[in-house]
Amino acid sequence: MPVVQSATESPEPASSAPTPPSGALDRYFKISERGSTLPREIRGGVATFFTMAYILVLNPIILASATDMTGAHLDSAQLVTATALTAGLTTLLMGVVGNVPIGLAAGLGVNTIVALQLAPKMTWPDAMGMVVLAGFAIMLLVATGLRERVMNAVPLGLRKAIAIGIGLFITLVGLVDSGFVSRIPDAAHTTVPLQLGGNGHLLGFPVLVFVVGLLLTLILVIRKVPGAILISIAVSTVLAVVIDKFADVPALKWGLTVPTWPGNPVAAPDFGLVGKVSLFGGFEKVGVLTGVLFVFTVLMSCFFDAMGTILGVADEAHLLDEKGDLPGINRILMVDGIATAAGGAASASANTCFVESTAGVGEGARTGFASIVTGLLFVVALFLTPLATMVPAQAATPALVTVGFLILANSIKEIDWADYTIAIPAFLTIVMMPFTYSITNGIGFGFIAFCVLRLAAGRGRGVPAPMYVVAAVFAFYYLMPAFGLL
Questions:
Q1: DSSP letter (8 states) at residue 185
Q2: For the chain, how far is it from start to end, CA to CA, in angstroms?
Q3: In terms of pLDDT, which residue wins out, 117 or 82?
């Protein structure tokens, strides 16, 4: 996830003075110029892969657990293939074109938008088509130079609030999918929507696996162990396999995936979901305005997460110039836009930059050659689908809770809570996402509140024009039912 703080610490620059390049590879990637070496780049690429590889488990679980408007599920094995394929190819592209040590894969947060906001209102190809359109929009913004200008139009406090809201939303999804929290049936005639466990108590081996996995993940994170999330998923999966083998656990208690060891852990990838996209079918299902807002929501999540991640990783790798700018950033942003569209085209959801790439920077990576290594490892993972699809939700969802915490811890301190014209919109953005189970609502109410409060405080002239336009679109969207338009 692009806003997650790495568990590794950034070292000092590898060298105070660059050494002369020693070959074509060195010259192209500027390895010596950036004070690095080929072994450091290889180690960094491997470290980044192992801190990102959990997405091969989590992305299929999030997407396959949802249904579209026809009740159709996406196949888990095909999702693993799509996730690994797009992560590998887009990370390779970032290495060759962007020349920065940044890995890309399906973004946590964006996949929940696709699974829980888009898919229920249309078919899966329609939903993935909207992701592709968001990627095209990002590429257009980069090509016209508007991406950085639009980025500057949204106040920092709201950008951070969007990240925090998505973090809390992901946390709630993780708690529910694991069975640690469950919905109280409407027949209970209570206004309380959720409860602990299945009946107000924590019972059953699957919940035990989740609790053990969560504690292990948090311990590894505070100990700054590289690959903490992946290690926890692996250990929890082994525990779940052992429990399922020797204890009488009904399959329904595990949920989507029963932890059974596959007969053959290696299998040919299944590319059945690649290309299953309808670019404009979603607009026929939900209407033009709602469709545009859905595309906008995907764009916003990818847009701001990637920008912050790119600058954060570049700063830790000492790639920023004296003005704090990243040379060649437009090439990097264009690759990110391509990755968004490619993820949708393969039905893996939008691919975006991962801040877990700082693990590779911590190992000494400074160039795109590290991304080449990471990308090749994701390509190898294409043939290990059976291993990824044996992981139950209870072993993978602790990562969602941990990611939610790290997002909040990394962003909440950067909101100016003393300025109510930004603090209140930020608060609404944060709470509306989990409380309405809608990322779109969080962004909409936050933008509207910001514009209204700034006008009420006599500070309306300081609000950029794009903010008023977006807030007006959201306001009209919410008023459509009152006008009989929805």
A1: P
A2: 34
A3: 82
Spatial CB neighbours of 484, under 8 Å, sequence gap ≥ 6: none
Place of tokens 């309380």: 192
Maximum distance among all alpha carbons in the chain? Answer: 74
Report the length, in residues, of the chain. Answer: 486
Q: Tell me the C-alpha distance between 227 and 312, whole Å.
A: 19
Q: Please give the pLDDT value at position 141.
A: 92
Helix (H, G, I), strand (E, B) or coil at 170: helix
Phi and psi (nearest 5°) for 353?
-70, 140
Of the pLDDT bands very low, low, confident and very high (cuts 50, 70, 90), residue 21 is low
3-state SS assignment for residue 182: strand
Band the pLDDT of 369: cuts 50, 70, 90: very high
Backbone torsions φ then ψ of 251, nearest 5 degrees: -55, -35
CB-based contacts of 218-224 (< 8 A; 24+ apart in sequence): 218/402, 220/7, 221/7, 221/402, 221/406, 224/7, 224/8, 224/9
List CB contacts of 416: < 8 A, sequence separation 6 or more: 157, 422, 423
* Alpha-carbon dihedral 341, 347, 351, 357, rounded to 10 degrees: -150
Are 387 and 265 spatial neighbours (Cβ–Cβ below 8 Å)?
yes
**DSSP characters over 292-314:** HHHHHHHHHHHHHHHHHHHHHHH
Residue 184's φ and ψ, nearest 5 degrees, are: -80, 125
pLDDT at 16 over 50: no
* Percent residues over pLDDT 90 in the chain: 49
The structure's pTM equals 0.75
Cβ-contact 87, 55 below 8 angstroms: yes
Residue 106 is encoded by which pair of tokens?
A: 């399906």
What's the chain's Rg over C-alpha atoms?
A: 22
